[in-house]
Structures are given as structure tokens and as C-alpha cells.
């Protein structure tokens, strides 16, 4: 856990979520830690990223810890990917990293700048969100077969998954849950797209519309989602603090970028990532940091987290952290960064606050 340092083993209850989450003001996000000197970054050049980069993923290590062979993991990953294809018409495979001089020119960058776009519109359920859920789904499949308590059925005799979302994340979760033949509760706002709602119903998801209550801060969908998790549902979502394995699966996107850049002899200077809850940005940052440690990239790109003007709580938090670093820097130098970041991680509510009023944006899901 990045917030309190607690370690969670594979045979413990809910290793993907710190038990201290929600108990204090800390930023309790768990992440897997592997010995980078003992794993292969990529294997077989398989088109399925969950096979190609398997030794970098928690699900593979969980399978090995439970006595499963590499061949069994590969077979499991192929089975689940085929089931996803049956549900969605699209399987997980490498998505393109495209150079776009047209976009470069449209936003006024100099002609000498090379701009690349990682195109996720052809991914499962039409976005990157499925990657996050697939990593979690593979781990759950192993855990269920082994009878681990954190993947066990609830008292009513069924495995129940839950997510709070109004768009791409809900669609991705519904596809992977359908492939796993698991029940999914989706908590959506009153203004969710009818097209999304229709597709969720087609995939067998159970939908709860959550109205905002006067005087109650924060997202009403997240509140209901957390109530369901407290009753025993698996947080099948893209929020890292609710389920750290959402970060794990998302790292495959950065792994693909790293492989493509290495093949072209390119170095990435800056990486711009759209940010809602931050799972994708966290996944890319962690993947590039590990790639640097493994000697696969010369440097970690500068990362820009991009938010919509309709609601930008991360920008507010960043500005507050930056102001505190600047105040301490003259006296404490480089240690000011570590000191302030540690304080922020253990006092999250002082930096990340509910957005005042109802946010609006054409980027609806990111809100």
C-alpha cells in the first residue's frame, strides 16, 4: 500500500484493496511488486497483450503462486479473451501507436516535433478501460478456481461484481463480467447515455440510477458502489484506491508503447493522458518507471495529466502540493518534494476534495 505500507499476500482477503482505505485521510492504493531482475518484459510476441507481457502482470504471478504452470496461464488468458470476443465482437490485441502530423499542425506545434497517438477506439468496448478490467478478471479467474476468500461467492450464492460509471468503464466491465459469467451491478447517474444503458442491459448488467441528494458531497454513484462493496461485492472498477489491480491491467497499454518505441528507435519526451480517477496515468507512470529500471528506455517521459475544464480536482491538488513544495524548498532543498508528497499521501482530503456543484463537460464519462 502506497499510503501505509501494509503488505497483502495472495491468500489474504482482498489483496487488491488496503483494509485501511476509507478509515483515515490516507491515499491507500495497493500495487503489485515484482522482482524485475527475474522476469521477461515480453514473450512470444503474442498479439494478446495479456500473454505477451504476462510476466509483468499480477495474474501470472498469482497463478504461479497457486501452482499453475505458464501453459495454464496462457490457456486461461486465451479462453477469457475468446469469451470477451464472443461478448463484444472484439478481442484484446495490440492497439496502434500512430504518428499524427495532422494533429501536430492543428494544435500549432513546430514542424520538427513528432507527435504520436495511442488509438484505443478499436479496443474492447471502444476504449482503454477494458484493459484495466481484463487484468483483474484474469486474477479473479485463478483465485476463484483456487477457492481464495477474496474471490468467493457472496452469502446469496453468486459472485457479484460492482462498478460506478456512466460510460466506457461500465461498458468494459460489463463485457468482461459477461465473459466470466458473473453478475455485475452498475451504478449510473441520472444523465447516463441511453445508448450506454441499452448496451449494459444487453450484456446482462443490473443497473441502479443514483440521484444526487441535497447536502451530500461527492458522486452519488460512488457512494452506492461503496455500499455494495461493503456488502461483499468485488469492486470491478477502474479506481485504483478501490481495486489496485485496475492499475495492473492498464500497464499493458504502456508496455505496448514501450515495445513500439524500442522497435522504432524512438524516445518519448512527453506523455499526455486524459485523467478521471487517474488509473491510466498511474499505470503508464509505473510501467515507464519499471521499464527504466529494466534498461528498456533511457528515460521516463514527462507526464501531463489532462482534465476537462468542467471539473479538475487533480489540478487543484497538484497546485496545492506545488505551493507547499515551493514554500519548503529554500530551507529543505530536494527533500521538500519527498516530505510534501508523503504528507499528501497520508492526508488526501486536504488536497483531493469533492468538486463544488455539478460538473459539466462534453467529456462526460471523465467527470
Structural summary, described in words:
With 367 residues, the chain is of the alpha/beta class. The protein has helices at residues 49-52, 58-65, 70-88, 101-106, 129-146, 168-179, 194-202, 220-230, 245-264, 279-293, 313-332, 335-346; strands at residues 97-99, 116-118, 160-164, 183-189, 206-210, 234-235, 270-274, 302-306. The protein has a four-stranded parallel sheet with strand order 5-4-3-6, sandwiched between helices. Helix 2 (58-65) runs parallel beside helix 5 (129-146), helix 5 packs across helix 9 and helix 9 (245-264) crosses helix 10 (279-293). The longest helix is centred in the last third of the chain and has 20 residues, at 245-264.
Compact description:
With 367 residues, the protein is α/β, with parallel strands linked by helices.
Task: Annotate the secondary structure layout.
Layout lengths: L48 H4 L5 H8 L4 H19 L8 E3 L1 H6 L9 E3 L10 H18 L13 E5 L3 H12 L3 E7 L4 H9 L3 E5 L9 H11 L3 E2 L9 H20 L5 E5 L4 H15 L8 E5 L6 H20 L2 H12 L21
Parallel strand pairs: 3-4, 3-6, 4-5, 7-8
Antiparallel strand pairs: 1-2
Helix pairs in contact: 2-5, 3-6, 5-6, 5-9, 9-10, 11-12
Amino acid at each position: 500500500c502506497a499510503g501505509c505500507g501494509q503488505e497483502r499476500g495472495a491468500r489474504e482477503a482482498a489483496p487488491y484493496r488496503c483494509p485501511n482505505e476509507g478509515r483515515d485521510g490516507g491515499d491507500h492504493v495497493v500495487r503489485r511488486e515484482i522482482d524485475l531482475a527475474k522476469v521477461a518484459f515480453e514473450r512470444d510476441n503474442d498479439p494478446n497483450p495479456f500473454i505477451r507481457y504476462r510476466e509483468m502482470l499480477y495474474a501470472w504471478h498469482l497463478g504461479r503462486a497457486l501452482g499453475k504452470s505458464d501453459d495454464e496461464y496462457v490457456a486461461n488468458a486465451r479462453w477469457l479473451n475468446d469469451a470477451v470476443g464472443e461478448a463484444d465482437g472484439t478481442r484484446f490485441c495490440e492497439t496502434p501507436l500512430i504518428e499524427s502530423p495532422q494533429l501536430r499542425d492543428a494544435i500549432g506545434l513546430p514542424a520538427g516535433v513528432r507527435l504520436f497517438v495511442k488509438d484505443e477506439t478499436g479496443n474492447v468496448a471502444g476504449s482503454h478501460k477494458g484493459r484495466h478490467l481484463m487484468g483483474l478478471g484474469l486474477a479473479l479467474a485463478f483465485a476463484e478456481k483456487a477457492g481464495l476468500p477474496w474471490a468467493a461467492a457472496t452469502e446469496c450464492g453468486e459472485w457479484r461484481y460492482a462498478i460506478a460509471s456512466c460510460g466506457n468503464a461500465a461498458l468494459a466491465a460489463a463485457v468482461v463480467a459477461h465473459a466470466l459469467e458473473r453478475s455485475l451491478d452498475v451504478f449510473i447517474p441520472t444523465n447516463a447515455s441511453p445508448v450506454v444503458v441499452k448496451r449494459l442491459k444487453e450484456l446482462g448488467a443490473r443497473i441502479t440510477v443514483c440521484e444526487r441528494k441535497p447536502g451530500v458531497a461527492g458522486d452519488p454513484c460512488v457512494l452506492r458502489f461503496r455500499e455494495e462493496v461493503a456488502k461483499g461485492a468485488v469492486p470491478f472498477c477502474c479506481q485504483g484506491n478501490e481495486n489496485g489491480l485496475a492499475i495492473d491491467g492498464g500497464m499493458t497499454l504502456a508496455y505496448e508503447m514501450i515495445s513500439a518505441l524500442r522497435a522504432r528507435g524512438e524516445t518519448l519526451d512527453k506523455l499526455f493522458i486524459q485523467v478521471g480517477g487517474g488509473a491510466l496515468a498511474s499505470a503508464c507512470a509505473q510501467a515507464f518507471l519499471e521499464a527504466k529500471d529494466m534498461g528498456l528506455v533511457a528515460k521516463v517521459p514527462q507526464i501531463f495529466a489532462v482534465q476537462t475544464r468542467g471539473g479538475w480536482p487533480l489540478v487543484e491538488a497538484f497546485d496545492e502540493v506545488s505551493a507547499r513544495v515551493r514554500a519548503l524548498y529554500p530551507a529543505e532543498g530536494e527533500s521538500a518534494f519527498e516530505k510534501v508528497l508523503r504528507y499528501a499521501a497520508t492526508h488526501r482530503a486536504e488536497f483531493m476534495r469533492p468538486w463544488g456543484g455539478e460538473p459539466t463537460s462534453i467529456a462526460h464519462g471523465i467527470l
